Amino acid sequence: MPRVFRVMRKDPDGLPTVSQTSLGVRPGVDVDLDPQNSVVVNGKGMSVAPTWRDINVNRIPKRLRPILRGAGGSVHTFCFRTGDGDFVPGAFATGLTLEQDSATHGNVVPAEAAPLATYEAHLAATRPAWQVDET
Amino acid sequence: MASKPLTMNPNYTAMVRGTRELHQLVADGKDDSPDADAVRDATDGPWEALSEIERNRVRNLSEDLYSLVEQPPAAQPMTPQAQAKLNDAFEARQRGEWDRALDLLRVWRAYIDPALVSYLRGSIWLEAGDPGTAALFYEHAFKCQGDNQNYLAMFLYALNLADPAAARNRAEQILHEHGKYSPVVVSRAADIKFMSARTTSEAEAHRVFELLEPILKSTLAEFEQQDPSKIDYKSYVMALALLGFSYEFLGKWQAAGEFYSRGLQLDPYNDALLVARGILLYGTSPRALSDLDMAIRTGSPLIWPYVFLAHHALLNGRFEECRRLCDRALNMNGSAAVMSEVSEWMAIAQAGLGFPAEMVRASFDNAIRLDSSSERAKRNFAAFEAAHKPITINIWETRSPGAVRTSGLAERRFAMAA
Could A72 and B44 be called an inter-chain contact, meaning their C-beta atoms sit closer than 8 Å? Predict the structure, then answer.
């Protein structure tokens, strides 16, 4: 699995919150849906980066300012990491692949057209594999 | 290396604007609000499009924006090393190395007054081409040191570039209580109000100019009570110029001329004042010609000195000089009516110089294309076609100096780049 980072909220168990703005996607924004409510496979998906320092500075929790100047994200969010492989396109997890759109950004997308609920379930299933990494 | 503004591409501009908005929300305690999340969402796309240099610039700007609401670092006594680094920052700014100047200020800020840090940051951002960011830092400098109203004047200046409507509101507040502010601030506020009034209705413009007149006079009196060595002459001249412009718009030309002359005594090469007085005196005093000539020598970007001197040369049969001045004017910004008349003068000068008929026709065609209502241009064209060539007698119909002055003054009412 490629090593990726994403800023998300954290549940009491230390794992990311499953929601549209944490471990999940915003339909119509992060992914496009067809009339049957299936996710269109067009490169869009859940946004990730190869290191947390590459993420939009306005999302990096501001407690990390001593490490990264200007961090302006909510203190209620955390930089989560999963995977250990190279940041390259390919299989990510069950039903999911990583699409890379630049050296510093990619999207976790459905491996094939699937109902939104299925795609969301696949994303949620990765929850145990994420851990906070703000080093 | 010459100082050059930063390239403000749309993604970078959107990122900077979003970052400033986010910091404003954080300052208002809305760090974790839907509004803040909306700003973060809106900056994701632009962020992805930025180069690494631009990303670093935004990170550093965001860090510097925290200084607007946070306590400054504990002040440190100046050391030779800090002094050297701050000198480096000044020199980097002069060279247009904006990022380096800002980096040095960030690292060594504890060694200088926080108000000065913000003032310098504002100046760097202004020169780098981002008046919106500059305004935030200038405003903070004034908050830190409220007795230094030069910071407030700079804030108004930057705000007017970034957000003219907000600047006008602030200027109106200041003018309403002008006695509480320094003449430098009142002059700046009056300038903003004056410039905005020029685009309003005639009645509203008159009301504004009449409102500004006593304020500006009182401001001048305040300047004149100051120790001459401490007067901000740039602002003083601005107040004199504004009074002159106000009187000009009110049709009080003698008073206008007197204020222009007072301004020129202090700033003899001020092209806006030279042009203003030159137009006002055109056709009535030889001083008009020397003013307009001097304005050209100072490199004025205004079209008017070229137009008036071209007209003067034409009336005096100096066709080559007229042609040269028309050529310059036609490459500048001017209304269609002005450009049409200049093209007409160009045609007459070309005819007088014996240019090929096709060139003369092209200039007349240009004049008529620019202003199809110019019956005079059409009559002069017809006279050219009917005349025996070469043309050795004056067959042309031209306007008098007084008529050219009157239309020039009228055009300047709402197009003056003072």
Answer: no
A58 with B22: Cβ contact below 8 A = yes
- pLDDT, one tens digit per residue, over B205-247 is 888 888 999 999 999 999 999 888 888 899 999 999 999 998 9
What total number of domains does chain A contain?
1
Of B263, B259, B238, B77, residue with least CA distance to B153: B238
Nearest to B18 among A58, A76, A104 (CB): A58
Average pLDDT, chain B: 92
Q: Which residues of A touch B55 (CB under 8 A)?
A: 57
What is the spatial distance between Cα A30 and Cα A22, in angstroms, rounded to a whole number?
Answer: 12
Which chain B residue has the Cα nearest residue A47? B44
Q: CB B19 to CB A29 under 8 A? A: no
pLDDT at B418: 38
Enclosing H/E stretch for A8: strand A4-9
Q: Does A20 touch chain B (CB under 8 A)?
A: no
The 10s digit of each residue's pLDDT in B131-154 is: 999 999 999 999 999 999 999 999
Domain range for A115 is 4-132
Exposure b/e, A97-110, CB count within 10 A at least 16 = b: bbbbeeebbbbbbb
- Structural domains of chain B in order of their starting residue, each with its CATH number: 1-69+79-162 (no CATH), 163-267 (1.25.40), 304-415 (1.25.40)
Predicted local confidence at residue B189, as pLDDT: 96
Q: Which of B18, B43, B44 sits opposite A47 (nearest CB)?
A: B44
Dihedral sign for Cα B414, B415, B417, B418, please.
Answer: negative
Residue of chain B with shortest Cα separation from A26: B41
Give per-residue pLDDT as tens, A65-115: 999 999 999 999 999 999 999 999 999 999 999 999 999 999 999 999 999
Fill in the amino acid letter for A67.
I
Most A CBs within 10 Å, among B32, B40, B43, to test the A interface: B40
Q: Do the chains contact at A58 and B39, CB–CB below 8 Å?
A: yes
Q: Nearest Cβ partner of A56 from B32, B47, B65? A: B47
Give CA separation, B147 vs B142, B150, B180, B234, in Å.
8, 9, 11, 20
The rounded distance, in Å, linking the Cα atoms of B300 and B277 is: 14
Could B41 and A29 be called an inter-chain contact, meaning their C-beta atoms sit closer than 8 Å? yes
